[in-house]
DNA sequence: CATGAATGAGACTTCATTCAT
DNA sequence: AATGAATGAAGTCTCATTCAT
């Protein structure tokens, strides 16, 4: 979808054919960056896969870094669009949450694990080890990227379905964190992931944690714990 | 006829001064790899920071890759040791969980976020984009690294304190996932993280999810009733 | 999931100017490898002699080894072509032999002694001490290289002009061996070699050995030897 | 055997233990140089095989080059000694020739192919590609090395058993050339070589070539006729 | 516009050699 | 006498990037 029109690329030629070129390069660039990561991806390989000259890549993009930025932006845009357009806003909060989780897992797995890694590895200002300046407009992208979930959680809180005593930020980590961890695991171990089952399981697991703690339940659990301790020390 | 003969291998010195050198290089290597990631880290920089010749680095380590491996191993060893030695095995499952989470957050933040990224980015077989062969003995390290948590969760399951209807693997993602996500967030945004508060909050948030849902309440109520009866008849 | 994807390979350009470059590099590469041998030849020197950047060399050849391989191949091709095209197939076996010897000596001496050494030193599978893998397609080159002589000898055998009681392999050594030895000697001592005279002499020397041993001659020689012995002991 | 006492090595310590050290290093140095060639041989490997420090090698030899020189010298000395001491000076020229050829083949094959290559590749002044200055006293070594054969051929010429119309130098090439060619072939192809059979065959093949051609037959017949006459009138 | 061609800068790595102990 | 330790110098190779055509 439309990126919020960043600074106009001086290099980019205009015209319909040019736009197709840009799209091609972005498409293949995404592949290569996803497969190899920022450092190991080469402009050479991108050009070769398109059967164009290396120099042509530089006709449309100021450099490797810029291309990578655009690749990541495009990818973000797609995810954001997929979620924003598909979100069943009429359904229950839980169902919407499941949609979000499922969509993420799906998009990540289709071609995204590499890009996910790319973003995680390269996409930050200068802390950690990354492409450095690569992440200039990143905070904003991150914000928009997590916006649907944040809004959903906020709505849930207002409806009393989501606990209000925990900062949203932490709740977000609670949702995205395990998701990414599962993805990494899938990538590392090479095991296939049943996306739908995983999404269902994960939400089932998270749901109780997102809800207001039932006071009676808490008290009872404390009681049980005390008994346990008492027994073991008797 | 000429003997075939294997390739000769340069071995690292073994004296007492040598050990110090190895430690120094590992220390600085850790810094540099953490700051820059595998690809951007250079042996030149490591040597410069130690004010030694680049060749000296290669006297003690066979190559960049091996050095990086050792750096990661050392780091894993530290975390594993810190957790294994400090874990309050007498305390409740929940307290032990809190210890594990807290220790992880702390060690990661002290100097570890970069290393965490390093491991995540480079430490996998060949899937995703990584240093490839770098992660040969990595599966084992990962296993030992997550072992304390896994054992704790298993004990919790046996004691009835942790739900048994979810595979341990998923529970592990539920714990490590948000932790890592929080760390990434801290790194990306550059915001400081109150480690102890975060650990407490996170565990508070996770705890309900780790416990049996639904019928738990029923069982607890039965338990309370039985206690009531027992007490009144005692 | 991320595609496995093969390693990308830089390909050498293919334009008309590129071909000239390739020829230039091969020409100078031949010089340098011939002068210095494989190990002592440096890509730096090759580049410098051409007044081009070292990187340019690697634009056209994957590496030092490949360049060297190509140099040797080209040289072989030249020799093979020179012999195949110039061989006076109508002339007598002896004249053809002289042509082969002469052509070899000439080509070797023009610029070839170094290359001869290069091939002898580096061009073998892994036996002896050599560049090892350098000689992959070498056996074939060797075969083609010695083919004209082999065929000539075979024809000579059929025509009854060359003795048939000795394996061709040994006859080949008998021809090439002294030739190479003479060349080495010329190189080592630095003495000039009168190529044509040497070729003539050598063939004159070899020719009797290549022919069927005349029985009477043999018997007479034995007689003379016996006389000699008898005289000296009398 | 005793080298004609070259310039005294400043570095070499004296004493019986030192002499043993020198012998050890020369022994292992010979192995390594033979296996790897000059460039690929490393002082590291030589030291490692002896389980001594690399620095120790430099205590006894001024450098890699000098060590290599000494290795080659020693080897020459051995061959020269073997031939000079074993040569059956009473036997016929042909038998002596066979002894020389056989001894060469044998010594070369035992451990010498590598060294042979070393000498051929590295042992020349500066022509060809070699260790350059490595061959300072080489011409002399070469002379002594080929001396037995040269003398034998000269004696043969005087006795009328070896043709006199060809310079000795060329005859030498005729003997050593095929020998070395056969050895190379054996090394390259890895095929085993039946040393004794090869020596016999080769000499059988060479012998006619070493003898006078053409009119020889005439002379021999005259000789036979004269003998006939002499006998009948005696 | 596309590209063929070239390259500067820099990476990792090897090894003979030195020197204080 | 022996060596542990260190290193200068050099080599091969990679890649993003530029520029004339």
From TrEMBL, chains A, B, C, D:
Residues 19-79 form the HTH tetR-type domain. Transmembrane segments: none annotated. It comes from the Bacteria. Residues 42-61 bind DNA. PROSITE patterns: HTH_TETR_1 (PS01081), HTH_TETR_2 (PS50977). Keywords: DNA-binding, Repressor, Transcription, Transcription regulation. This is TetR/AcrR family transcriptional regulator. It comes from Pelomonas caseinilytica.
């Amino acid at each position: 979808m439309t990126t919020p029109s960043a600074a106009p690329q001086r290099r980019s030629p205009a015209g319909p054919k040019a736009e197709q070129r840009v799209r091609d390069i972005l498409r293949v660039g995404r592949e290569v960056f996803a497969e190899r990561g920022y450092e190991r991806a080469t402009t050479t390989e991108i050009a070769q896969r398109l059967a164009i000259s290396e120099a042509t890549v530089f006709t449309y993009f100021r450099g490797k870094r810029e291309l990578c930025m655009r690749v990541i932006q495009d990818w973000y845009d797609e995810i954001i669009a997929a979620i924003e357009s598909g979100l069943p806003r009429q359904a229950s909060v839980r169902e919407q949450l499941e949609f979000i989780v499922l969509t993420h897992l799906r998009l990540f797995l289709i071609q995204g694990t590499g890009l996910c890694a790319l973003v995680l590895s390269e996409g930050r200002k200068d802390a950690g080890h990354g492409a450095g300046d690569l992440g200039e407009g990143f905070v904003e992208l991150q914000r928009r990227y997590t916006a649907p979930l944040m809004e959903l959680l906020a709505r849930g809180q207002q409806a009393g379905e989501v606990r209000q005593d925990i900062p949203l930020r932490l709740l977000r980590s609670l949702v995205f964190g395990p998701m990414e961890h599962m993805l990494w695991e899938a990538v590392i171990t090479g095991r296939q992931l049943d996306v739908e089952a995983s999404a269902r399981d994960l939400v089932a697991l998270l749901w109780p944690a997102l809800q207001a703690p039932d006071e009676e339940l808490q008290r009872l659990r404390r009681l049980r714990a005390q008994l346990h301790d008492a027994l073991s020390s008797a």
